[in-house]
Amino acid sequence: MTMWTSLDPAAVAVEPGGRATARLRVRNTGDTVEEYRLSVVGAPAGWARVEPDTLRLYPGSEATAEISFAPPRSPDAPAGPASYGIRVEPRQHPDVRDVLEGQVTVAPFSELRAELLPSVLVGRFRTRASVAVDNLGNTALTASLTLRDETNRLTYEMAPNSVQIAPGRAAFAKLVIRPQQVRWTGGSEQHRLTLMVRRSGDDTGLAVSGTFDQRPVLPRWLLVAGSGLVAASVAFVALWMGFQPKVNTATGEMQAGSSAQPVPQGAESPLPSAPASVPPVQPGASVPAGAGAGGGGGGGGGDSAASDLGAGPPVVPPPPKAAPKAAPNAPQGPVWDMGYKPDDIVTFAQYRLATLGNECTLRPGWTAGIIDKATQTSLACYQQHVMRDQKSSRQLTATDKKPGTLGRATLASMWAQGIKAEDVKAGASNFRVRQLAAALWWANQSQISDADLDHDRGYAKQGIDYFKAAQQGGAPMKSDGNLAKAIKDYQSYVGLPTTGVADQKTINWLVGGDVKDRGVPGR
To answer: Which of 41, 124, 293, 373 is least surrounded, with the fewest CB atoms within 10 Å of its CB?
Structure first.
């Protein structure tokens, strides 16, 4: 043995976000100069360090190194005791290396976040929503969910009304809201909602605000149109009854003209040919080359900016056809293909395709929620467009290999479309931030659970509402530290500088379909 080691203290306790230290002593008991390399092993190694990490000692001399523990205030440092080791490895005699064992205890902390998806609900007889509860602490917790409205004129059903959440995970509940009285006519009525999320043992709870926009069964425009139609009908009847046409007999005129000779066949000039019909242009469609004055060109090509494929004025896509009932044994995405069960995530992609404004635009007649023939053709065109774009990473088909199917790489690309770096900088609050969060959600997951899909569908419903409103407004989201961490994780996965800032290159890489574990399509 050429060394003597000591660890003091062998057990330490530390608060998340704080710091604790221990001291390592090493003595050279050999007869030659030795260099000792020090390293931390075990679960705490990710947030522990030893300084200095190398000790050079003469025979009989002794030195000290400090081990510091700084667990982050996040689920990455679970509460409770964790064993660790300090490896001491002599450079000249590696066969006599030693590992000193110790223990560090991380104190528990709780942090809860909840979200109502969507935050603005619309309905006449009832409406549905999802509640997402995230456990940002380092210990498991149980939370109860309740809802109240200021006017006490709503009833609701929450399933489940209590959730158990592991550290760093999310739980979801389904919410159905019904008004106690149906509004048949008149304007909309706003009901302010407050969702209370109470952690077990905490009486204060977390309040999440929302709004239920109760619409009338008979909209105002229908009443106005009906009143106008009735008034027009009454006026037409009154005019008809008051009009007395003068009738003359034409018998004498017919007799006087009986000597007229018929015109021989072919004596008349031939009829002029009918003008060529011009098909109407559908909303959002590009004008064919040469049509109309000036002969405008078609949709954008491969030179478009990577994050601006669907540039152009806001467009409200035509309403889709209702999806048929799926077969009991129909598969469920992701990846979504023809014959799969209807899904809101597919509907979001269809609205995105219907508002592109180029040659890939999904034309009217598509069926909501399923990959029909028109959707498959538009999807394949979009994927080819992205793979031709020199400004993107062009990795989309590395994951979504089959053209015309909807996978997580294509969804990440669609969510990232139209985002500019200045729109999503730290502290910004707008719908572009929510787009970026949804794109990162798809890009950072190689395996997707049913709970994750519920979160995805919440994003999809907000995207559908955004496109129905001609890409105006949308539920805003704030760019905070959690989004910065997701950006940094994504940049690490795809080999970009891990700045935690969504610069234009990071956005273009999302548009190009570069995702974590590329080639892994989903669950």
So the answer is: 293
Q: Residue with structure tokens 């409770």?
A: 80
Q: Please name the helix (run of DSSP H) or strand (run of DSSP E) that holds residue 234, with its range, or none.
A: helix 220-242
Confidence (pTM): 0.45
Could you please report the per-residue DSSP string of 332-389?
Answer: --SSB-TTPPP-HHHHHHHHHHHT--STTPPPTTPBTTS--HHHHHHHHHHHHHHHH-
CB burial string 505-520: b at 16+ within 10 A, e below: bbbbbbbbbbbbebeb
The gap from C-alpha 61 to its chain's centroid, in whole angstroms, comes to 61
User: Which pairing describes strands 120-123 and 62-69: parallel, antiparallel, or unpaired?
Assistant: unpaired
Residue 352's contacts (CB-CB under 8 Å, 6 or more residues apart) are 310, 414, 417, 463, 467
Residues 6+ away with beta carbon under 8 Å from 286: 296, 297, 298, 299, 357, 358, 359, 361
Expressed in percent and rounded to 5, the helix, strand and coil fractions of the chain are 25, 25, 45
The sign of the torsion formed by the CA atoms of 220, 225, 228, 230 equals negative
| Phi, psi of 252, rounded to the nearest 5 degrees | -65, -40
Instruction: Specify the 3-state DSSP secondary structure of 484.
Output: helix
Backbone Cα Rg of the chain: 35
Q: Which residues is 48 bridged to in the sheet?
A: 69
What residue has token string 């018998």? 251
Question: Strands across the sheet with 127-135, in order?
Answer: 112-117, 127-135, 170-179, 154-159
First to last CA, the chain: 53
The CA distances from residue 341 to 48, 347, 359, 360, in Å, are 48, 12, 28, 24
d(CA 337, CA 408): 13
For residue 114, the cross-strand partners are 133
Could you say which DSSP state residue 321 is in?
Answer: B
Question: 99: helix, coil or strand?
Answer: strand
Three-class SS of 240-306: HHHCCCCCCCCHHHHHHHHHCCCCCCCCCCCCCCCCCCCCCCCCCCCCCCCCCCCCCCCCCCCCCCC
Q: What b/e sequence results for 422-453 when a residue is b if at least 16 CB atoms lie within 10 Å of its CB, and e otherwise? A: ebbeeebebbbbbbbbbbbbbbbbbebeeebb
C-alpha dist (Å) from residue 368 to 36, 345, 347:
67, 10, 5
Mean pLDDT (10-residue bins), the chain, 523 residues: 87 95 93 93 94 93 95 93 94 88 94 90 89 92 89 88 92 91 81 89 84 82 74 82 53 40 39 36 36 35 54 72 80 90 93 90 92 94 91 89 92 92 92 93 86 88 88 85 92 92 93 85 68
Q: How many Cβ atoms sit within 10 Å of the Cβ of residue 97?
A: 13
Are 487 and 516 spatial neighbours (Cβ–Cβ below 8 Å)?
no
Q: Sort 303 into a burial class: Cβ within 10 Å, 0-12 / 13-18 / 19+.
A: exposed
